[in-house]
Design a protein that fits this description.
13-stranded mixed sheet; globular; single chain; 7 helices; alpha+beta; 31% helix; 37% strand
């Protein structure tokens, strides 16, 4: 049996889709869409057994910034292993390889574990818990009019970078924001500039059944409440659930946002991580 670790090639996409499908609940259509839109801009590291990928990790460039300080980073996303090849150490070998090679070149690493058990697993590998979301639930109240305008991924990114410029946060390039907007649209979502009291804010969200899921916004909890009826009308929903920064929202369910490795910039606002 021949085993190796290598960078995936385009011909490997069907095998990557198979690994993803057996590891997560996403549809075949979504998985194929992800790779068709992103394969050229990301790196996928695979563990081969007899020249077939059996375990994989998607690696996306990012940057941790805090005012004038910055550190290039790699976001590790949707890693998994085929069911028939689990408990053989293949995924663990991939992670150790990434830690050794990427940090050697000065890159930091981060990811969002899908469960408490996985959080403990990554901590054992040397990752440290860094930051949290607040998952805020809001029922619509009285109507307050808002102005909402669809904006491009580049305009959204500029607004986002300006809003968080005085905080430690993860900065993404426009290519990643382009995908985030496309993914949001895939789920019938919209990426908006919201104007309230002559001030502009951004919001990225999509309807899930009768709930508006806000992936990201710089509206405050009180502003979301004030605009909740208008937002629900805009998206055709009956309530709102929003991923909020832990630094600005102290209510709602607290959810781990990221664990990090080799990153001196800490307590970062980490979002648009393909939640």
């Amino acid at each position: 049996m021949k085993e190796s670790i290598r960078i995936a090639e385009k011909k490997d996409i069907p095998a990557l889709c198979e690994i993803w499908k057996e590891s997560f609940s996403d549809s075949d259509e979504y998985i194929r869409y992800f790779y068709s839109e992103n394969f050229e801009r990301i790196k996928v590291l695979v563990y081969d057994v007899d020249s077939k990928p059996v375990s994989a990790v998607n690696i996306i460039d990012a940057e941790f910034v805090n005012k004038n300080e910055s550190r290039k980073a790699k976001y590790l996303y949707a890693g998994g292993t085929l069911l028939a090849h689990r408990k053989k150490g293949y995924f663990n070998a991939l992670l150790k390889f990434i830690v050794e090679t990427e940090t050697m070149h000065g890159w930091g690493l981060f990811l969002k574990p899908a469960s408490q058990k996985l959080t403990e697993y990554f901590v054992q590998l040397g990752f440290e818990i860094d930051s949290y979301f607040r998952f805020l639930t809001v029922s619509p109240g009285s109507f307050q009019p808002i102005s909402a305008l669809d904006i491009s991924y580049s305009d959204y990114n500029r607004m986002r970078n300006k809003a968080y410029s005085n905080l430690p946060f993860v900065r993404w390039d426009d290519a990643h924001l382009c995908w985030c907007v496309k993914e949001n649209e895939y789920y019938s979502g919209r990426t908006l500039k919201i104007t309230i009291d002559q001030k502009d804010y951004f919001l990225m969200g999509y309807p899930e059944d009768k709930t508006l899921i806000i992936n990201e916004t710089n509206l405050s909890p009180d502003q979301i409440r004030q605009a909740s009826r208008a937002l629900c009308d805009l998206f055709g929903t009956e309530q709102i659930k929003a991923y909020m920064p832990d630094f600005s929202c102290k209510e709602g369910e607290r959810i781990l946002s990221s664990v990090v490795y080799n990153l001196p910039i800490r307590n970062t606002y980490t979002n648009l991580i393909l939640i």
